[in-house]
């Protein structure tokens, strides 16, 4: 099992302190902790992989202190809402895939563009890294294929 490094916050003072002391924070506001169980395991894994580079924290908006914190931050999650804070200020709503690879990539470069493989317009693009993958694709695909090679 993965040891979670996701911080749990309720008090708005703790949240302000976190945003003041950390410069790359992904904050998950939940209505109930169990309503975010689908994303919790992803957050646990991401938190260990970005240790020292980013901080992930959760605020439960269903309890008394959490409700005050969410109201102060102007957040009203139905299930959960993910927001990113950079250098102590709100940066943007998290709008990428809710999986380990996407979140890790986002936290490594929060201001960067959406990666090509997460762009909905590139669903037909296949990135191949070995000749075997190319051979397999050529055998199974019956439509014409446009192939591009990149040589650095």
Overall radius of gyration: 19 Å
Instruction: Choose one word for the global shape.
Output: elongated
- Compute the average pLDDT: 89
Helix content: 25-40%
Question: N-to-C SSE series?
Answer: EHEHEHEEHH
- Low-pLDDT residue intervals, each spanning 5 or more residues: none
Number of helices: 5
For the secondary structure, the number of strands is 5
Going by helix content, strand content and strand pairing, the class is alpha/beta
Report the biggest beta sheet as strand number plus sense, adding barrel if it closes.
5 strands, mixed
Intertermini distance = 39 Å
User: For this entry, what is the oligomeric state of its chains?
Assistant: single chain
Query: What is the topology, as strand order, of the major beta sheet?
Result: 1-3-2-4-5
* Proportion of residues in extended strands: 15-25%
Q: Which terms summarize this structure?
A:
single chain; 5-stranded mixed beta sheet; elongated; alpha/beta
